[in-house]
Amino acid sequence: MDEEVKIDDIPTKSVDETKVENENTEEKVKQEMDEEEDEEAMPHSEFLDIFEEGLALIVQDPLLCDLPIQVTLEEVNSQVALEHGQAMTVRVSKADGEIMPIVVVQSATVLDLKKAIRRYMELKQQREGGVKHVSWKYVWRTFHLVFNGERLEDDIRKLKDYGIRNRDEVTFMKKLRKK
Fold it and tell me: What letter would DSSP give residue 155?
């Protein structure tokens, strides 16, 4: 019943033959991967065109129609959060009459609002090609935010604690110098 297998009957390969086979296998795998990459590869400009076409379709949605053409993921997420009631729009009024619609989460603090204002201004400047650098340290030393006559001075205090709700207007005011 038990057959004896002789070692001489087992075909053996030399170390060199094994190395050659391994190299051939590695080359085949690399070639297959290169072929897959070639099939999937597309010029960057073509990819951008396809992406922008898809983005244009998304922005036509009634929920997202207020967003600019060069929309960021952050702006889309903010708009969706607004729709679901997880965020609110605070209208920040500047001295020149411009009103900036700033989107922050419902539980936002004054510091969150300041950061959102900064981000809004940076995106606006990028799109319009305006001023390249703004010293926000200077801005917050020179201006403060006011809601219903009350200054928003405590950065860690929540906007809700000041009574700020969705679509409320906060004024961007210049600080008076102390003499």
Answer: T
